[in-house]
Amino acid sequence: MSTASREGNLEAPTRHPLDWKSEDFYNEQSLFNEMERVFDICHGCRRCVSLCQSFPTLFDLVDESETFEVDGVDKKDYWQVVDHCYLCDLCYMTKCPYVPPHEWNLDFPHLMLRAKAVKYKQGDVKTRDKILTSTDAVGSLAGIPVISSVVNTVNKLKPTRKILESVLGVHADANLPEYHSNSLRKRLKNHASLSSVKPAGITKGKVALFTTCYMNHNEPDIGVDFVAVYEHNGIPVTTPKVEKCCGMPKLELGDFDSVEKAKQVNIPELARLVDEGYDLTALIPSCVLMFKQELPLMYPDDADVQKVKDAFYDPFEYLMLRHKEGAMNTEFKNALGKVAYHAACHQRVQNIGPKTKDTLLLIPDTEVEVIERCSGHDGTYAVKKEFHAASMKIVRPVANRVEKSAAEHFGSDCAMAGHHIEHATKDGVKAEHPISLLRKAYGI
After folding, report:
1. What is the mean pLDDT of residues 110-120?
2. Please, how many CA atoms are within 13 Å of residue 250, restricted to the half-sphere of its CB?
3. Could you give the CA distance from residue 213 to residue 287 in angstroms, rounded to a whole number?
4. Are 441 and 334 in contact, with CB atoms under 8 Å apart?
5. 143 and 39, same domain (yes or no)
6. More confident call, 7 vs 56
7. Range of the domain at 419
8. Contact 375, 394 (CB under 8 A)
9. Residue 147 CA, distance from chain mean position
10. Higher pLDDT, 144 or 31
């Protein structure tokens, strides 16, 4: 059977480099032509309708048009579809049968990324969105002693949240993270691991933790749990001497210049660590994906970017690689019972398999119920006034699963997704990061 006559694509999906420095990339007419082509294919398939709000928005526009086809949709309404895409990547990696190497060469998330870059280049961006994606600046300011307690208090008061909604467009009911003055990087500044380096398989046996903006400023305790778990497994841990945001928030905004500025700080330092024999990891799946996929596609010819890509691992992927070689500590003191585990989108699309679930199942008398559905958080989407309702609609099925599971523990590799799901439940469920659950099982 010829390739042209095959329905869908039966080969592993591949990703093309992002041609973001070409003039055509920012040509609006060229963009609209490609969007019309892709939207027409999506309209004929509709397999992704349940993933996010982008696809229902597109299909409603088509169904309400005079022609009942994409050619009947006003091009200016295309931006509605773009605005609802938060680049979870699930359509590309789990649903779409027409991704490359299929001849139709459909990459919906990166088309939406291109559209966001065009909007940003045209100056069509809210001040709020620039602030929300400036995670280094916001975290540093909000993490100053006294200011952090003021920010945390204000974020819990309904009257001030209403003001924040009217002035900045941050929804009054959205869950906002707390800020800590005693950041993760402060806590680990003088930390020195005593474990000796023990390579196992492809793992070098010592790890540099990219702390991430969120773990550094918002949930440093999870980072401390990570160090405890890894060192309990005989894996020395260090942190980069300098670190900027991975760039994912700015990428999702279409601000490629800011992504490049962050890359110019992070990549040389991470490449240095790789040269010194370290493997790399981060506790936010989006940050891992940024270094494993997005930056390599933006800079396919940069040797250091590719070096960092090859050395970057998901935290549980790393532990399971070592377990395969008999190098993981499986002496657990405490059972966890039933765990409702939400598999984060940006972890799922790394194509590494359910490594967090596999790790937790090593704990005796522990059952894991996996929930593979997007939470609709995306870091900023869920807190925006115009998108909060949509995010709560997307998270509802996940929250329902958590409630029905009646599990002793619930968590997600994406701490932000975990708290968004927690926020949507009705029975006071508290999210716990899987690395913290692992520490609890070890009893350390």
Report:
1. 96
2. 20
3. 10
4. yes
5. no
6. 56
7. 330-442
8. yes
9. 28
10. 31
User: Do 306 and 375 fall within a single domain?
Assistant: no
Locus of tokens 């799946």: 285
E-strand spans in 194-351? 207-210, 237-238, 279-282, 312-313, 337-342
- d(CA 172, CA 155) in angstroms, rounded, equals 9
* Residue 362 · residue 332 · CB < 8 Å: yes
Structure tokens at 229: 């778990």
Strands 337-342 and 279-282: unpaired
pTM of the entire predicted model: 0.92
How far is 402 from 128, CA to CA, in rounded Å? 32
Q: Which helix (H) or strand (E) holds 370?
A: strand 366-371
- Answer whether 371's CB lies under 8 Å from 342's CB: yes
Q: Taking residues 92-120, what's their average pLDDT?
A: 93
- Please indicate, yes or no, whether residues 28 and 91 belong to a single structural domain of this protein: yes
For 304, counting Cβ atoms within 10 Å of its Cβ (0-12 exposed, 13-18 middle, 19+ buried), the class is: middle
Query: Read out DSSP for 56-111?
Result: HHHHHHHHTSSSSSGGGS-GGGHHHHHHH-----HIIIII-TT-TTSTT---HHHH
The verdict on 71 and 102 lying in the same domain is yes
CA–CA separation, 203 vs 169, rounded Å? 45
pLDDT exceeding 90 applies to what percent of the chain? 78
Are residues 155 and 66 part of one domain?
Answer: no
**The total number of structural domains that make up the chain:** 4
132/380 Cα distance (integer angstroms): 7
Spatial separation of the C-alpha atoms in residues 178 and 152, rounded to whole Å: 6
- Angle in degrees, CA 373, 440, 281, rounded to 5: 60
pLDDT at 170 over 50: yes
Write out pLDDT tens, residues 39-72. Answer: 999 999 999 998 899 999 999 999 999 999 999 9
DSSP 11: S
